[in-house]
Amino acid sequence: MAQENIIIIGGGFAGLVLAERLSARKNSLGTGTRIILIDKKDDSHFLPGIPDIIGRGVPSGIFKYPIAKHAARHGYVHLKHNVTSIDPTRNVVEAGGFRIGYEYLVIAAGSETNFYGNDKIKNAAFRFDDADDVVKVLEAVNEDKYERYLICGGGYTGVEIATSLRIFLSRGKKNKEIHLVEAGSGILGPMPEWIKEYTRANLAALGINVLTGVTVRSYENGIVTLSDGMMFDNSMLVWSAGVKTPAFVEKTPFSKERQGRLSVDEYLRVKDNIFVAGDCAGMTYKGELIRMGIQFSIEEAGSIARNIARDIRRKKLRRFVPIDPGYIIPMANNLSCGMVFGRRVRGRAATCAHYLMCLVRLRGLKNKKVLFTALMRKRT
Questions:
Q1: How far apart are CA 359 and CA 324, in angstroms?
Q2: Which of 10, 99, 212, 283 could pair with 109 as two cysteines, CB 3.0-4.6 Å apart?
């Protein structure tokens, strides 16, 4: 029997869960089926926890889980390559100079920082894409050569970065300026107004200045220049002003939603044998585009695994129906806020909800223990 490939692009939440679920269904996939996960990184990074590398002094290593270890445990192949393109007409993925054919393809490549074509800022600014990026930020802060810190982007990540920096600097009794720069009229975009107000009040209490309606025009020699002409010298710029899908996703011929997310059908497909999960999936449910989120990524991975197995057995596919448990805006001084199963949560209750999710989703028992110990230490 000829070997058939199921290729997963991306080793984030969706990719690893999908590889697990497919591997568990190998009997129903057929003896000639090979599961291949392509990701250029050695590790899968636990992104919800990485601000704590700064804000709570958590070791960065616990937020990195080796993909090779996961592959060996679940019996799939990990190819450490960068995907450059896919050819949906020939059912081929191009990665690392190779052309790899597939019977089924799942695009779960996540998202990356969007610099909106500004290569100068891209090369000069710090970013927050993974745990390694956060370590670089922390090392730069520890050099203590900056008088002020500007975080470009007033969304979820920008707020986390700003509060984590403030708590870190306060522990060292360093009263540096922190400015959160947002192009829109207010922070946190489409979030409910009560969350925006609560967050603004907390940022003000922490001495974090919020600048709205402006963008970063340039960043050179430690000088940040804003679109209104305001300048900040001796500054460190951390960029979190939005995300986009990877370049190979942008080049695909499929219809796209905001941020380049691929428009999928009710089965999370863009083609009969091409599924999409995680941040790359742009699914509209009840008239609204599903936001990027861990729980959705995991649910989508499970649904796709079931449907690939069903399709192989020539059974009717099942529609994906998302379940939204809510979201938290974690802030490093424990005054977090968000919605959990339709209820408003604030303060330490919201912070506890966030870390409960982290402890459940973080891979590796030792990693869970280290995080739990760090959380308990910071509370005492």
A1: 19
A2: 10
**Residue type at position 244:** K
The C-alpha angle 214, 203, 135, rounded to 5 degrees, equals 85
H/E element, 45: strand 43-45
> Cβ neighbours of residue 205 under 8 Å, at least 6 residues apart?
none
Backbone phi, then psi, for 362, in 5-degree steps? -65, 135
Sign of the four-CA dihedral 254, 255, 259, 265: negative
Q: Which helix (H) or strand (E) holds 42?
A: none
Token pair for residue 114? 């969007």
Strand partners, 211: 181
pLDDT digits (tens, 9 = 90+) for 81-112: 999 999 999 999 999 999 999 999 999 999 99
CA-nearest of 224, 240, 226 to 158 is 240
Tokens 């977090």 sit on residue: 336
Q: How far apart are CA 230 and CA 342, in angstroms?
A: 41
The pLDDT tens digits for 215-228 are: 999 999 999 999 99
Phi, psi at residue 352, to the nearest 5°? Answer: -65, -40
With bands split at pLDDT 50, 70 and 90, how would you rate the model's confidence at 1?
very low
Q: What share of the chain is helix, strand, coil (3-state, %, to 5)?
A: 35, 25, 35
